[in-house]
Amino acid sequence: WLIAPGAVSQTGFSDGAMSDLTGLSLRGAGIDPAVKCLDESAQAFPSGGIKKALTDGSVSAFLPDAPKSEAAWREVFIALGARPLVKGFDYVRRHGDLVLFHTANAGEHTLVPPDDLADKDATELFSGKALSGSEFRLKTDGCDTLLLKFRR
To answer: How would residue 131 be classed by pLDDT, with cut points 50, 70 and 90?
Structure first.
């Protein structure tokens, strides 16, 4: 959650609406541009935020401002339990056994497959090149898109 999630309700600004939406005790809707968390069970979080495990097993995180850099966003996602599959400024999208890798950078790239596809063979569908191993080293001359199909 960023800045003032759910702060505006049908009856105006509402701290209760923010808390209901996020599961965190947030205060400052419409009064102070910097919403604050008063939830004592919340833990400190990167980029000045907090996080809290909710009773349903999920985690709610709040940042008083949006991270300003790719590195700051990466730090936030790692703190939430995400595992980066590629370095910054590269992009990965997955649908089932298909993984799309896109980069704007020339050079060598390392792709670590998602856990359930680790150590599975793959074929790059545009070139037909076969890949195998626990991580793939991909070389590009610049902006490039690769589409990998993993064998289950």
So the answer is: very high
Q: Both tokens of residue 92?
A: 């990965």
Cα separation, 117 vs 124, whole angstroms? 15
Rounded to whole angstroms, how far apart are CA atoms 91 and 150?
18
Determine if the pTM surpasses 0.70: no
Q: Mapping DSSP to helix (H, G, I), strand (E, B) and coil, where does residue 150 land? A: strand
Counting runs of H as helices and runs of E as strands, what totals does the chain give?
2, 14
Residue with tokens 């209760």, as numbered in its chain:
16
Residue 92 · residue 85 · CB < 8 Å: yes
Pairing state between β 12-13 and 26-27: unpaired
> Which residue's structure tokens are 């309700």?
9
SS3 92: strand
Cβ–Cβ < 8 Å for 102, 91: yes
Q: Is residue 111 a contact partner of residue 139, using CB atoms and an 8 Å limit? A: no
Distance from C-alpha of 46 to C-alpha of 67, rounded to nearest angstrom: 9
Which whole number is the average pLDDT over 26-38?
80
